Amino acid sequence: MTEENDGRDATMWPPTMMKNFQQASEQAVEQQQEFLQGLLGGGTSGVGVPQLGAMSQMATFKTRVQSGGRVSIPDAEREALDIEEGDIVQTVVIPVKRNRED
Length: 102
Description:
single chain; mainly alpha; 2 helices; elongated
């Protein structure tokens, strides 16, 4: 391979490429902001389906794993989120502390 140097700094991008890069970056930021607003605001998606407004419909708590891998949702969280027996919920499990010797 040979490098041709026509007097321009090889690290400089052409102005049109920089403009396209800037526009793409701005669009990405706008899309991220719209996503977060939808997630936090609980609006509706483009097809008219209500979103959960996940941050306002969420609880974080620690609990112990019981026999059979069961976990319990504390009373206060069930009341705050209006969760009743038989409701389907989504969980994210992150181990906090292990009480065993490895």
